Amino acid sequence: MALAETDAPAHNLALDVEAVSHRYEREGQAPLAVLDGVSLHIAPGEFVALLGPSGCGKSTLLRLAAGLEQASQGAVREDGRPIRKPSPDRILVFQEATLFPWRTVAGNVAIGLEARGVLADTRDRIDAVLKRVKLEGFADYYPHQLSGGMAQRAALARALVNDPKLLLLDEPFGKLDSLTRLKMQNELLELWRSAGFTALLVTHDVEEALLLSDRVIVLSDRPASILAEIRVTRPHPRRRDDPELIALRAALLERLGIAHDV
After folding, report:
1. Based on C-alpha coordinates, what's the Rg of the chain?
2. Is 252 in the same domain as 154?
3. Which among 78, 94, 183, 234 is most buried, taking Cβ atoms within 10 Å?
């Protein structure tokens, strides 16, 4: 297992998913089971990717880790403590940037600090985090003035300004064009390596999972259970034409039921 390479003190947490099953109650219908006995340990500072069919429960697992929902059965813990509610230590970044259109970039980034009542003491952090995501010249811009990649950088800045210990990423680059996506993958990797947070990424992109993560977890169709776990030991930065990654890609596609020649 490779941990984030950072000279700063580790600011991360361990995440444990213990025999978690989850279902959604539906009026007049049978409950919809989405997770079935999922157990997973993520070490502090580790980068883990979740792969699986659409609708299998990957995003639900992120919501449980964020504290937005409680598991129907089993437990989700951070550093051994049950997760019962949201926390600025655990931040969820969505596929959509979800920026407030009436706020500037800096205003959007400040939302979490405002909610916690600490904005007055931490305004310098907004400038620092905008520089970290390469938006230092765009603090006064509004979302409609940003490209898709810039908007997603602003969403990342909004998460990072809270100095999270766990970053939960729900296909954050899924709606970007291919070139912007490649650039954002590299930037996310740089952020992880410099900040040292623990990362859990949901993606449908096998290549993205292999390029970024220490481990790839393959989930089954709904209700999801773990089909396979593949460790990626190649050092960063990784190359798409690396023979070892090509072999791992073939193995992952096979577990997902997709032909090797795809």
Report:
1. 18
2. no
3. 78
Q: 84 and 176 share a domain?
A: yes
Residues 129 and 226 in one domain: no
% helix / strand / coil in the chain, to the nearest 5? 35, 25, 40
Q: What does pLDDT average to over the chain?
A: 88
In whole angstroms, how far apart are CA 193 and each of 75, 77, 79, 196?
29, 24, 21, 6
Name the strands in the sheet holding 90-93, side by side, starting at the edge strand that comes first in the sequence.
90-93, 166-170, 198-202, 47-51, 215-219, 226-231
Q: For position 6, what pLDDT does the model report?
A: 39
Please give the single-letter amino acid code of residue 143: P
- What backbone phi and psi angles, to 5 degrees, belong to 237? -75, 145
**Residue finishing a domain among 163, 180, 206:** 163
CA atoms within 13 A on the CB side of 139: 14
Instruction: Look at strands 47-51 and 215-219 and give their pairing.
Output: parallel
Domain containing 14 equals: 1-89+165-262
| Three-class secondary structure of residue 16 per DSSP | strand
Tens digit of each residue's pLDDT (9 = 90 or more) over 5-49? 434 445 799 999 999 999 998 888 889 999 999 999 999 999 999
Last residue of a domain, one of 121, 146, 163: 163
- Tell me which amino acid residue 29 is: Q
pLDDT tens profile 124-141: 888 888 988 889 889 999
Least Cα distance to 64 among 108, 27, 114, 20 occurs for 20
pLDDT (tens digit per residue) in 85-113: 999 899 999 888 889 999 999 999 988 78
